[in-house]
Each structure stands twice: as structure tokens, then as C-alpha cells.
Write the C-alpha cells for this entry.
Amino acid sequence: MHIIAGSLKGKKLATPPGPSTRPTAIRVRQALFDMLLHAPWGGNMVLSQAFVLDIFAGTGALGLEALSRGAAYCYFFENDATALPILRSNIRHCRKEAQSTIIPTSALTPPMAKQACSLAFFDPPYNRELIAQSLQALTTQGWILPNSLIVTETSRQEILPFPKESLLAERFHGAACLRIWRFESTWKF
């Protein structure tokens, strides 16, 4: 696994052993960033100097890809004991320690925000209904700005309880479903 584009293009990323962490496949990550950069509602301003959340970060591939493509800062939420050392190592290997903070706690019980973010990646274990719960907790603690882009990766059959009119894009890649939403503070969880 490696960074696809930007200042870190080609940097290899380590992955934890075993099945507890499921990194986003390279082709899925490429499709996601293509959507963010080339959709009518997207563009360079989505990433340029953005503050980003990588929730259920695992290897940190999504957040590091965003940093590589111009994001200002990324907060990585990860509490899995196997994934944490790999995440730390990947950030160090990419020399992004100054632009990163690892928050080693569950996104279901986050601390108060250090900085509200405009782009959030949610890639939890599939079919556990963790996205809505963690989004609500993060919103309550001030991590997500109104009108932010919320990127979700779920299984194909997983349904999210967000308003359909907020859905900007949906793409299927094998067993995965990528959705990009425009977050509104009026969402009911």
C-alpha cells in the first residue's frame, strides 16, 4: 500500500497484521480523491489547507493522502492497540508529525475539539452502525463544521440514516460503498 498522489506520492505505508484493520484499497482511495477533486461540488479548495478528520484511521492512509494533496492538518482517531503503532510509524515515515495528531480514543467518546474540521473520513468496521453514532459524538464535541464534507466507506448493504438530499455522490467498488455527504447541523441522528 502507498500514497497515490501529491507531495508524498509513492510513499509506502505499513499495514497491521491480521484481520482487525481493513485498509481502504488503493483503487477505492483513488476513486474517492478523484470525486473530491473533480466533482462539481468539489475541487482543490476541498483539500487545500483543510483541517481533516480520519475516523477509525487504521493505517492512516486516508488522512495521509489528504495531507499529501494539500490539507493543512489531520486528526487521526484510532484506539485499536494493533493499529496504533502502525499509524504512528506511517505518520513518522511520511514526516507528517507536525501536521498530525493521533487521538487514541474511541470516536464514540471523543474529547472536546481542538479544531473544527471541514472534511471527515469515516471508515469503520463494516455493518456495526458506527458512523452515525461517532458523527453525533464528534459533532457534539465540536469537531465538525456545518457544511463539511462527510466521506463514508461502508459495505454495499449498509444503510446510513442521513438525509438523501445531503448525498453528493455514491460509488460502489467491490464490497465497498463510498458516499460523500454535505453535513448540515440540522441532521437528526
